[in-house]
Write a structure and sequence with these properties.
This protein is of the alpha/beta class. The protein folds into 3 domains: 120 residues, Conserved hypothetical protein from pyrococcus furiosus pfu- 392566-001, ParB domain, CATH 3.90.1530.10; 32 residues, no CATH class; 66 residues, no CATH class. Helices cover 51% and strands 8% of the residues. It has a 5-stranded mixed β-sheet with strand order 1-5-3-4-2. Strand 3 and strand 4 form a beta hairpin. Helix 9 crosses helix 10.
Length: 267
């Protein structure tokens, strides 16, 4: 084992030499007992979760995610900045060596804490629907245990119900129109004038049955006004629609009481 560890450290050193200063970290192979754990760690694990981590490490025979350590310049001590539980689990699992990432430059106490907290705080969130779907793909009981989802989360997933869409997918046709900046401004104004919500993603959905009508209108507009491209023709259609709307008088606004009286009279 000593010879294997030495060979691994030599291989890591060769990789460090190849990478040089292109990355801010070095790779090393050390006994997890040599790594100094954090005095204060805001991230905690329940006893059951930690035991599950130990069992996974023991089963794998290695850490699948490398701890990040700082090599203190004055004495060369290795202090873990990220992966405190992984280092502890490696020791409990009886691993004789682990691979680690090392920061060799001098770090102030503030820099050490900032790195520690960033590794704890900057993490994604699970989409519950996808998580449940993935969980249900695991058929083996032991592999479900390995996945490490705690009982509280599993209880939440059990509450989720999803209605599967069994009907055929809707019949649709996608039409993409590209507008120049000045045309986009004109289109926005036209839509606002007719009280159409213009969303940030600028996507609009209409019924599939309207496609032929819109297509025919575009062709006719291009022919009558000698227009070449579709976006310009669409803008012309909006312009014509606006002109037509301007000729239609606005309906008389009625109060709620008047509307109720009219409804009663027609009943």
């Amino acid at each position: 084992m000593e010879q294997k560890i030495q060979q691994a450290r030599e291989a890591a050193q060769r990789l460090n030499e190849v990478l040089g200063d292109s990355v801010p970290y070095k790779i090393d192979v050390v006994n997890p007992k040599e790594i100094q754990l954090l005095d204060k760690n805001a991230r905690y694990m329940s006893h059951d979760m930690f035991q599950n981590l130990v069992q996974n490490v023991k089963q794998d025979g290695a850490l699948s995610s490398l701890p990040l350590c700082w090599k203190r310049p004055d004495d060369g001590a290795l202090i873990v900045l990220s992966g405190n539980h992984r280092v502890q689990a490696a020791t409990h699992a009886g691993l004789e060596f682990v691979m680690i990432l090392i920061i060799e430059k001098d770090l102030s106490r503030s820099e050490q804490v900032a790195i520690q907290l960033s590794h704890n705080a900057i993490s994604g969130k699970d989409d519950q629907a996808i998580l449940k779907s993935l969980w249900e793909e695991i058929e083996d009981i032991d592999l479900r245990q390995y996945a490490g989802l705690d009982s509280e989360l599993l209880a939440e997933l059990d509450k989720l119900e999803f209605n599967t869409i069994t009907d055929a997918p809707p019949d649709f046709k996608q039409v993409i129109l590209a507008f120049l900046p000045e045309e986009t401004a004109q289109l926005k104004q036209a839509l606002e004038d007719v009280d159409v919500l213009f969303s940030d993603d600028e996507n609009f959905v209409a019924s599939r049955r309207h496609y032929d009508t819109v297509f025919s209108a575009l062709v006719e507009c291009k022919e009558k006004f000698n227009i070449v491209n579709n976006p310009t023709a669409l803008l012309k259609i909006f312009e014509l629609a606006q002109d037509q709307l301007n000729t239609i008088p606005m309906p008389e606004k009625r109060t709620k009481k008047q509307a109720q009286e009219a409804a009663q009279a027609s009943a």
